[in-house]
């Protein structure tokens, strides 16, 4: 039953893609080949920009149908996930596709069910948001390509989740990577988007190679491609570690862990908003799923030093991700960097879990695992919400840069309210959901202190927790900056002054649904933890018994006396205090409010240009942590011709670069280029030499065969 | 073992041990030479307090004598001498720039952890409850070296050197109930002589290269760079 | 009964917070050879402000008038959680130390947003500085909390205090360092000298005042009151964690009386110490704050290290 729902979900996603394609080429069935051929050439800027109106407009009903199918895919994925979470046993099956001797194995267990829920929620939001949002592309870009690749992207992610053999897994993984490549390059007339797409594809494929190599180790040990055989395979610790490190590199690259993150801040902002939401909100989680599946389920026998490595990587990603985010002034880029931070937090939880399990404290490991999974769910909700709301903002103002925005809370009140909810959630503030998962991560770190006998590891864990606190605080600063500059204050430019609320209700309903879920997950954490029990039982054989030891009102991960948090009571108390205050005030003498101009120090004429800009807001942080970035800051004064001391204008330029480019990527490119040049020497261009190559090959082959 | 399980004497020793490390950290973060000398004196005073405590609690009366020696030498005599020196060289208001302050502090914290890691196997063999103090004294030694590496002033180098000696002495007092009197007197005398010789050398270095920056000592090399 | 006592404690905490800051101001004035206002002056100020009609800038959005309520509710809620004169109250289980940090962050987040809402230069400046300082102070604070939590193996304040009362007096170097770190963080987070000056309105040096420059009337009253609660909260935390003796452990009138007297004495002494420190230290440049808070972090880190090396 659940498996059928999952199939239905994949089918719906694929058919939504096909429908979009068919819709666009109703008259001239030139077929998808042309589309693909055109898009494949994206990195090569050869073709002149198509004239406006080149792409035939699609009837609105058709567009709706495409997204309705996508939503249906999300709903059935959600349904399959929810049903399977409560099912007793995993269901598996075989599909008559694939290699003749290896049919596709599919399997749905609680772990994939959980991620199907995450995916389903994200896809539903994208499906609801899409029809209104994609109208702006009409006529200019191909809707068929967008629909097709969105559909295959979603289908690919679903395929990864239900795959039960290496072959299907890799195919689905590649479908996901390649179709998202086309989505990143969707607005292909921008050179930066083409570059971003190429970088993304390149790094995605390198990661895929690492994953395939990791699979290879297990396949060699078990002489099979089916995951079932891998679970029983025996791997020596050394090979196991090698496989784990390869998988970590591959999945970590997809998850955007520092220093393998370079593609993420380029690719996520380039894609259309609902796709950015899917990529940040769901695709990064698929990478987490891959690592969980590989390390816990397939490989098994988790070593504690794997956990230490994961914890270190996670901590570094969290801190550096948010430090890079806080200095960005591009709305979507900032959100993309903050995804790196949040994936870092997820990996911190995973790392703590692995450390505990490696050291034999399964109950404590569960806290880490639950914290990581909870943060996966939370991040998928609020990051999707933020990307969608940011998409609305960009849609209405046609601006990416924060420095051009301002005062949008008055022009777009609903979107602004939803964005505020997302900001509070992502900044990790009670009583929303971001806080709960960060709190759980803290609790996991705290438990480390009392049980781990290795003093070095113990102090590392404590330092990691302090860095997590730093991350949370900088995240708060980052989102105060984002929200304050974009939505508050006065508009800095004409277009934001004349922006208005989005007209399509789907563009409000999708983020509103996500915001509601954020509140729900923040207030009822014990329910979520209870729902996660089957996952922990399946992965680790135990459930977190102490989490709701005092009933559903109290979240007590490490036992009643260790720590407790009661989100419902917090919300209740705050509501009560609020109500009391308002009541008391209404009786008071000063019930109403007088409006007056803002205080301008008596000089008069406050202009929007006097406000703090995004760059100015982050300046103290930029100065204190200066070594983190590669900053080029120049200010050139223009002086009057008559008097060289009189400055007439001052131009200021600020460029903030990523250090990993210089330290990792550029040297790597140089090495690759050198190697390529060395290899190119065998291409002499002389026919006789090539014949000699063939000759040699023949000789060698004959020798081997005999 | 939780703290309340220790005896009061051991608690006090551990407490002072923590303070000794703290003074080492403060030295690393101290820009001014006079402040550095005060910190050195404070470290000496903590050392003397440890020794006196050991003398009282164990009881080893001869340790009172070594406490007295420490007080006269490391709290009064050497700091006073160094202070007079820098006043005469007119350096008592100088502030030394701190290079890579944050990294140095991180390295220092890492060194403390490292010394703990190194000492841990010994701890399991040892039966003394104050064995943890061993880790602390090793840390003080390493931090003294770090101080010498990161600074250029000769005076700071001398203080770093003396801090290393403090660390060794602390280990001796805290873990073996003090050294034989003869050895102790010998060390004390050595330190005093070293301080005097350093004092003389300052003037010589200063007169020959017109600075007390150790990096400038490269000039004395006979090999042309 | 327990809940009733907890409610009384929470209300008392909220009501007594202005007195603490009044007392602090009184001591400080005396130390600086000025004629002090009476310690209950803050109550008069609050009453006056509550009676005035607030003026809101016409560029402000709905966020601006809502913020004081959020800030006050968060502060009052944190006051309800901390053991004031009795431990083992049921409210203590609602939230632990980390949630407390979360409440502070919530109030600060909205206050910083409100600072940017009006669209003047001062508000943005204050918000930017406040968030920067917070991001430096929060890890130091958490590290100090961690040191305490490592000893008592809990983050629940009430349970931790219980543990300390049970084990009795012990010389813990880690506590000394954590105390130092927490004191510095408290000074930074409550906007006292040398980080910020609560009495200044000098444009370029103010931090907290710059954010709330546009507030008036009952909005200002709520924010000021929340600030006073926060100040006392840090005082109570430091006093009750590092010197827990005297706290009422059973709910008899004598025990509660002793508890109340003990916390009054502790807070009074703490205020004197703070006033002394504020009188003898000058305000720092903004970019020396990182050194100050870096030192706080170092202290907390040393506390953690000395716990691991020396106390286990």
Automatic annotation (TrEMBL), chain C:
Transmembrane feature ranges: 6-26, 62-86, 98-119, 140-164, 170-188, 231-249, 255-277, 289-310
InterPro entries linked to this entry: ComplexI_Subunit1, NADH_UbQ_OxRdtase_su1/FPO
Keywords from the named record: Membrane, Oxidoreductase, Transmembrane, Transmembrane helix
Pfam family, one: NADHdh
GO molecular function: ferredoxin hydrogenase activity
Enzyme class (EC, first level): oxidoreductase
Topology term for the membrane: Multi-pass membrane protein
Predominant place of localization: membrane
Subcellular location: Membrane
EC numbers: 1.12.7.2
Any GO CC annotation of this UniProt entry: plasma membrane
Protein name: Hydrogenase subunit
């Amino acid at each position: 039953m659940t498996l059928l729902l999952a199939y239905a979900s994949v089918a719906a996603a694929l058919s939504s893609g096909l429908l979009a394609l068919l819709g666009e080429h109703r008259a001239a069935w030139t077929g998808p080949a042309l589309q693909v051929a055109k898009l494949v050439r994206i990195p090569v800027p050869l073709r002149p920009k198509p004239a406006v109106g080149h792409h035939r407009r699609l009837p609105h009903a058709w567009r709706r149908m495409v997204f309705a199918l996508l939503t249906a895919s999300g709903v059935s994925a959600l349904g399959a996930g929810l049903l399977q979470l409560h099912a007793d046993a995993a269901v598996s099956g075989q599909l008559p596709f694939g290699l003749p001797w290896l049919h596709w194995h599919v399997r749905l267990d609680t772990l994939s069910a959980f991620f199907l829920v995450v995916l389903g929620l994200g896809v539903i939001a994208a499906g609801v948001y899409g029809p209104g949002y994609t109208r702006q592309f009409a006529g200019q870009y191909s809707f068929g390509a967008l629909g097709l690749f969105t559909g295959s992207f979603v289908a690919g992610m679903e395929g990864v989740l239900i795959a039960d053999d290496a072959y299907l897994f890799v195919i689905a993984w590649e479908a996901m990577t390649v179709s998202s490549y086309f989505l990143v390059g969707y607005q292909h007339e921008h050179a930066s988007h083409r570059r971003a797409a190429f970088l993304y594809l390149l790094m995605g494929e390198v990661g895929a190679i690492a994953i395939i190599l990791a699979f290879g180790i297990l396949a060699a040990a078990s002489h099979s491609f089916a995951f079932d055989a891998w679970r029983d395979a025996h791997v020596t610790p050394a090979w196991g570690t090698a496989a784990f490190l390869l998988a970590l590199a591959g999945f970590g690259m997809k998850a955007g862990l520092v220093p393998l993150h370079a593609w993420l801040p380029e690719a996520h902002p380039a894609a259309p908003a609902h796709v950015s939401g899917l990529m940040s909100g769901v695709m990064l989680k698929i990478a987490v799923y891959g690592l969980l599946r590989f390390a816990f389920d397939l490989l098994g026998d988790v070593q504690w030093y794997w956990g230490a490595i994961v914890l270190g990587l996670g901590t570094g990603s969290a801190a550096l991700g948010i430090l890079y985010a806080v200095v960005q002034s591009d709305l979507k880029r900032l959100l993309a960097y903050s995804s790196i931070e949040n994936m870092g937090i997820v990996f911190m939880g995973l790392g703590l879990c692995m450390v505990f399990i490696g050291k034999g404290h399964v109950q404590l490991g569960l806290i880490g695992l639950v914290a990581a999974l909870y943060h996966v769910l939370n991040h998928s909700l609020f990051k999707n919400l933020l990307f969608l709301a940011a998409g609305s903002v960009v849609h209405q103002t046609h601006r990416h840069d924060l420095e051009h925005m301002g005062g949008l809370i008055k022009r777009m009140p609903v979107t602004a309210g939803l964005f505020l909810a997302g900001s509070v959630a992502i900044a990790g503030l009670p009583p929303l959901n971001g806080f709960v998962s960060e709190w759980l991560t803290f609790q996991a770190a705290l438990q480390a202190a009392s049980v781990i006998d290795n003093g070095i590891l113990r102090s590392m864990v404590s330092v990691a927790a302090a860095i997590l606190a730093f991350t949370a605080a900088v995240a708060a600063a980052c989102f105060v900056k984002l929200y304050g500059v974009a939505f508050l204050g006065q508009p800095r430019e004409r277009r934001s002054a004349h922006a208005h609320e989005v007209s399509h209700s789907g563009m409000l309903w999708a983020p509103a649904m996500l915001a509601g879920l954020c509140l729900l997950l923040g207030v009822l954490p014990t329910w979520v933890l209870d729902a996660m029990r089957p996952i922990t039982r399946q992965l680790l054989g135990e459930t977190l018994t102490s989490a709701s030891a005092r009933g559903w009102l109290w979240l007590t991960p490490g036992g009643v006396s260790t720590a407790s948090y009661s989100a419902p009571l917090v919300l209740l108390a705050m509501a009560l205090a609020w109500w009391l205050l308002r009541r008391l005030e209404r009786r008071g003498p000063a019930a109403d409010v007088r409006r007056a101009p803002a205080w301008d120090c008596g000089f008069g004429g406050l202009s929007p240009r006097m406000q703090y800009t995004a760059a100015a807001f982050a300046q103290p942080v930029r100065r204190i942590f200066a070594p983190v970035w590669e900053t080029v800051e120049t200010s050139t004064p223009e002086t009057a011709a008559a008097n060289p001391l009189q400055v007439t204008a001052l131009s200021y330029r600020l460029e903030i670069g990523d250090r990993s480019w210089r330290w990792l990527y550029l040297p790597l490119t140089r090495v690759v280029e050198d190697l390529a040049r060395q290899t190119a020497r065998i291409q002499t261009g002389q026919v006789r030499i090539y014949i000699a190559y063939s000759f040699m090959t023949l000789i060698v082959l004959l020798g081997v065969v005999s | 073992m939780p703290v309340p399980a220790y005896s009061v004497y051991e608690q006090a020793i551990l407490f002072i041990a923590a303070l000794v490390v703290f003074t080492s950290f403060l030295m690393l973060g101290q820009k001014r030479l006079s402040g550095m000398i005060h910190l050195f004196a404070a470290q000496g005073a903590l050392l003397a307090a440890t020794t006196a405590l050991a003398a009282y609690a164990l009881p080893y009366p001869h340790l009172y004598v070594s406490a007295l020696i420490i007080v006269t030498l490391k709290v009064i005599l050497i700091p006073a001498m160094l202070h007079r020196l820098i006043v005469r060289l007119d350096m008592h208001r100088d502030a030394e720039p701190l290079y890579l302050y944050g990294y140095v502090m991180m390295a220092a914290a890492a060194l403390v952890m490292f010394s703990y890691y190194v000492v841990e196997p010994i701890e399991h063999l040892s039966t003394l409850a104050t064995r943890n103090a061993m880790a602390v004294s090793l840390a003080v030694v390493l931090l003294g070296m770090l101080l010498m590496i990161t600074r250029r002033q000769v005076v700071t180098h001398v203080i770093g050197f003396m801090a290393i000696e403090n660390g060794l002495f602390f280990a001796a007092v805290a873990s073996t109930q003090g050294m034989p009197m003869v050895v102790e007197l010998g060390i004390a005398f050595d330190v005093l002589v070293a301080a005097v010789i350093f004092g003389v050398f300052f003037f010589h270095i200063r007169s020959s290269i017109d600075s007390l920056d150790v990096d400038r000592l490269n000039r004395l090399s006979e090999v042309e760079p | 009964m327990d809940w009733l006592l907890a409610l009384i404690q929470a209300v008392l905490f909220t009501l007594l917070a202005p007195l603490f800051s009044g007392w602090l101001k009184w001591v400080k004035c005396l130390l600086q050879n000025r004629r002090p206002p009476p310690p209950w002056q803050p109550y008069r100020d609050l009453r006056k402000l509550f009676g005035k009609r607030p003026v809101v800038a016409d560029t402000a959005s709905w966020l601006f008038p809502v913020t004081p309520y959020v800030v006050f509710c968060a502060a009052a809620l944190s006051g309800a959680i901390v053991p004031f004169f009795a431990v083992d109250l049921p409210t203590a289980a609602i939230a632990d130390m980390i949630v407390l940090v979360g409440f502070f962050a919530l109030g600060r987040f909205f206050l910083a947003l409100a600072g940017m809402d009006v669209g003047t230069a001062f508000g943005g400046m204050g918000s930017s500085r406040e968030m920067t300082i917070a991001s430096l102070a929060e890890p130091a604070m958490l590290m100090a909390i961690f040191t305490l939590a490592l000893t008592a193996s809990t983050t629940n304040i009430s349970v931790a205090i219980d543990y300390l009362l049970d084990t009795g007096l012990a010389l813990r170097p880690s506590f000394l360092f954590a105390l130092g770190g927490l004191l510095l963080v408290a000074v930074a987070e409550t906007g006292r000298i040398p980080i910020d000056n609560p009495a200044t309105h000098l444009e370029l040096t103010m931090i907290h005042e710059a954010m709330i420059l546009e507030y008036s009337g009952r909005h200002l009253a709520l924010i000021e009151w929340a600030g006073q609660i926060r100040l006392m909260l840090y005082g109570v935390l430091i006093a009750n964690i590092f010197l827990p003796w005297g706290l009422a452990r059973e709910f008899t009138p004598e025990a509660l009386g002793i508890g109340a007297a003990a916390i009054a004495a502790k807070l009074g002494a703490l205020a004197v110490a703070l006033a002394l420190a504020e009188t003898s230290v000058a305000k720092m440049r903004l970019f020396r704050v990182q050194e100050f808070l870096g030192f706080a972090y170092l202290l907390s880190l040393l506390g953690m290290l000395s716990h691991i090396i020396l106390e286990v």
